[in-house]
């Protein structure tokens, strides 16, 4: 009975060993993996995704993930800007191992600590980039700074078999003294902007008041001009009437004078043509009375009657 038990235990052990040996003869590589197969610790080949076989106890496998991985800083990276301001930087790097057999072989043989090496490269490039920019322009040019570091890292990480997918400046922390100075400057800037806003509003109000005053002045000027034009037109009409009246009166006087001159000329022509017409005019105007006073030596007026005139 004891020997039977021993035999059974031995058989079970042998069966278990055979099962273990059978299970260790194959392995599976996932889609986002590449596997290095070694023989007695020496590099043998790189296995692509799928089912593969190996020799138990001789061959070993080492997996490399080829999907997107990431790492960040264990603690903020302390560095300085171009103007010697202290800055703590936190970054995040997304990368992937290139799924190329030669790259995988290189990583296995010469760069197994590729994550640590990549981290050291990133820290160095971040410090170099931060040392070329002034603190005051960090916030304004943060995107440009990130893109500059990203372009540099893409080339540098490629040299060690990694493909950079993304780089982010997760956080930038300045010293307490600098933050306080920035806050004071921001408050002063806000006060200046408030005063400038008030000044601009005052200028706008003054411009509106000026425009309103100009409008009222123009309106009053136009009203006065209209009144002056009406007064001037009225005065011109009165002057024209007076001129017309004076012209008419002068014309009447002229015509009357011309008529009297014409009459005198006619009388003169008549006297010239008939000498007795003068005596006739005297007779027409004599009232039949002789003078009551005759001065010495004065002639006594008598009508000169021609011989042909008959006595009454």
Explained architecture:
- The chain is α+β, with helices and mostly antiparallel strands and 312 residues long.
- Among the domains are: 11-65, no CATH class; 69-174, Tetrahydropterin Synthase, Chain A; 192-247.
- The protein is built from six helices and nine strands, in the order H-E-E-E-E-E-E-E-E-H-H-H-E-H-H.
- It has helices at residues 2-23, 101-110, 114-130, 142-158, 176-273, 277-285; strands at 26-29, 33-39, 42-47, 50-53, 59-65, 69-72, 77-80, 86-97, 162-174.
- The strands form three sheets. Strands 6, 7, 8 and 9 form a four-stranded antiparallel beta sheet that branches. A three-stranded antiparallel beta sheet has the order 3-2-5, with helices on one face. Strands 1-4 form a two-stranded antiparallel sheet.
- Strand 7 (77-80) and strand 8 form a beta hairpin.
- Helix 3 (114-130) packs antiparallel against helix 4 (142-158).
- The model is unreliable at 307-312 (pLDDT under 50).
Output the keywords:
about 300 residues; alpha+beta; Tetrahydropterin Synthase, Chain A; four-stranded antiparallel sheet; three-stranded antiparallel sheet; 6 helices; 9 strands; disordered C terminus
What topology emerges from the helices and strands here?
Blueprint: H1 2-23, E1 26-29, E2 33-39, E3 42-47, E4 50-53, E5 59-65, E6 69-72, E7 77-80, E8 86-97, H2 101-110, H3 114-130, H4 142-158, E9 162-174, H5 176-273, H6 277-285
Antiparallel strand pairs: 1-4, 2-3, 2-5, 6-8, 7-8, 8-9
